[in-house]
Every structure is written in C-alpha cells, then in structure tokens.
Design a protein that fits this description.
By secondary structure, this protein is an alpha+beta fold. The chain is built from three helices and seven strands; from the N terminus they run H-E-E-E-E-E-E-H-H-E.
Length: 158
C-alpha cells in the first residue's frame, strides 16, 4: 500500500477562501458631540453597530513534517473587516434645541462610525473570540480531510 504524504499546496486548496469572518459583535454605544470649542456639549447620540472580524485564509502558514507525520497550521492575526452603524438606531439628546439642525444626522452618523471603528480596535474580547472561532473552523476543515487521507498524521492549529 502506498504511503500518503501531504503537501502545502494540498492544504492551501482545502483552505481555499480568503476573508473568513469568525466573530460578529453588536455594539450599543453613545457619542458625545461638542461645539467647536470642544467644551460645550451639543448633544449625545446613541447608536447600534456591528463589527465583523476574522482571518485571511490566504495568510495561513503551514508546516508539514512528513517524517514525524505532523501538520502545523499557523493562523494569521485577526483583522477587523467591517464596522457598520445602523443609521436607523440613532437617538439624540440635545442640550439645546438650537443644535437640532438638518445636518445633525449626517454629522452624527459619521461620528458614530468613527467611534465604532476605534472601539472595535480596542476590544480584546472580539479578537480572542475571533481567533478561537478561526482555530475551531480550521480544525473542522482540515482534521477530517487528514484523517480520511492518512490517519497517521496529527494536526496542530496555532
């Protein structure tokens, strides 16, 4: 019976996708909007937003040790792929009705988008959940294929 060995190109074919979302978080937050003097509060705006994070499968590294029958998969860092503010959820509390102008919605939406992007970058739980989910997904993709092809190999995902 011929011995089956693995190649990196075979693994790349199994992992043949690029951006893979492994975490989808919903945020509820409030942005304080100040006047040009950066001291006078004009209004607060509450919003809901979503953040999608994951890994790029194209950046996965593989190490195949055919002698010891071990396949090591090294995952890339988690990336934020999308931040979306639901414009329909914006709720305002004005400190004075004079601040409720026709440009408020556009200004508030932009500020909420910036706020969400910054908060997502600093959210450690998002990154760790995305990494953990990515690891589980890669194991679920590779291990059955390896076991079916040559059950002597072990798979380690880092």
């Amino acid at each position: 019976e011929a011995e089956v060995v693995f190649t990196e190109s075979e693994l790349k074919e199994v992992l043949g996708i690029s951006e893979f979302y492994t975490a989808d978080y919903t945020y509820n937050s409030i942005v304080k909007v100040y006047d040009k003097d950066n001291e006078t509060l004009r209004y607060n705006v509450a919003y809901e937003g979503k953040v999608k994070a994951g890994i790029n499968f194209q950046n996965i590294k593989t190490q195949i040790d055919n002698e010891n029958k071990k396949i090591t998969v090294i995952l890339p860092d988690v990336e934020i792929y999308d931040t979306t503010v639901d414009a329909g959820t914006l709720e305002y509390i004005f400190t004075d009705k004079k601040y409720n102008t026709e440009n408020v919605a556009q200004e508030a939406y932009k500020l909420c988008c910036n706020d969400l992007a910054e908060k997502a970058k600093q959210e450690d739980n998002l990154y760790s959940a995305a990494k953990s989910n990515a690891k589980a997904a890669v194991e679920a993709l590779i291990k059955p294929w390896v076991e079916q092809t040559n059950s002597d190999y072990t798979v380690v995902v880092k």
